[in-house]
Design brief:
The structure is a single chain. The chain is built from ten helices and eight strands. It is an alpha/beta fold. It has one domain: Alpha/Beta hydrolase fold, catalytic domain (Rossmann fold), CATH 3.40.50.1820. An eight-stranded mixed β-sheet has the order 1-2-4-3-5-6-7-8, sandwiched between helices. Helix 2 crosses helix 3 and helix 4 runs antiparallel to helix 7. The longest helix is centred in the middle third of the chain and has 17 residues. The relative contact order is 0.15.
């Protein structure tokens, strides 16, 4: 793990693959409340195809600092943290991508600094059609974290002391359950009271190549949001996955397409 400072806070990240300028950098951004290791399997698949993969823990996640006030957690702030990571690593431009929260942060980083984003990989964006479901799911969770902070903190402390299995997804789940409830509530509160993503007018100005993935039967990540985004962006390709789990176990057709997409982006 490495770190850099952003707005006075420590942001954690790690690099995999070649670190030279020929390493074809891609920044992968995790989902809401998940740590950066959420994308470990995909990162390994991309590294095998010659890419330099950078995994970031956004503020409030993973091994980054976790301030306890919601004002530090908005989509646009997260987007600027990604640009700050590129500044820290002296990377002029990179492919940026992520899942769910990471997908929306990818859009924010692109709108904030379009010259720094060479292409976008977006899985399961949470846009206007998903807003009612997001409120329905995350508002009770926010209240629960805040009102039951003490018992949840005891449970989190207990889970954090349990030995890890060495298996990726059980360990990711254990890390999710061992989160401090107070900053978790702050993260959710900040996102609930801020904008969900850049305005459609700003999204329609994005010209970079974009690979968008989604799946059906997902209330929080409706495929209709992925379809709408593919129509808004000027140079987008839309792929349907069979389920949330398909990309979680590469290599598979989805990870292969991401690798091919990166080949096309950097060859151009």
């Amino acid at each position: 793990m490495s770190t850099f400072r952003y707005d006075g806070f420590k942001i954690a990240y790690e690099e995999r693959g070649a670190r030279s300028s020929e390493g074809r950098p891609i920044v992968l951004i995790h989902g809401l409340l998940f740590p950066r290791k959420h994308h470990s399997s995909l990162a390994d698949a991309l590294v095998e195809r010659g890419n330099r993969v950078i995994l970031i823990d956004l503020l409030g996640h993973g091994e980054s600092d976790k301030p306890k006030h919601s004002r530090y957690y908005t989509m646009d702030i997260f987007g600027r943290q990604v640009v700050g990571l590129l500044d820290h690593l002296d990377i002029p431009s990179a492919v940026v991508g992520g899942t769910s929260l990471g997908a929306n942060v990818t859009l924010e980083a692109t709108v904030a600094a379009p010259e720094r984003v060479k292409a976008l990989f977006i899985e399961m964006p949470v846009l206007e059609r998903a807003a009612p479901a997001a409120a329905m799911i995350f508002l009770p969770l926010t209240i629960g974290y805040a009102q039951a902070a003490t018992p949840l903190g005891w449970m989190a402390s207990l889970i954090s002391r349990l030995p890890r299995t060495g298996s990726l997804y059980p360990d990711v789940l254990a890390e999710l359950l061992s989160r401090d409830p107070v900053p978790s509530a702050a993260v959710l509160h900040g996102l609930l009271t801020g904008r969900i993503a850049p305005h459609p007018n700003d999204r329609e100005k994005i010209e970079q190549p974009a690979l968008i993935m989604g799946h059906h039967r997902d209330l929080l990540h409706p495929f209709s949001d992925a379809e709408a985004l593919s129509r808004e962006l000027r140079n987008a390709e839309l792929m349907m996955s069979n389920s949330f789990f398909e990309l979680r176990f590469p290599p598979n057709r989805l990870s292969d397409r991401i690798c091919d997409f990166l080949d096309e982006v950097w060859s151009s």
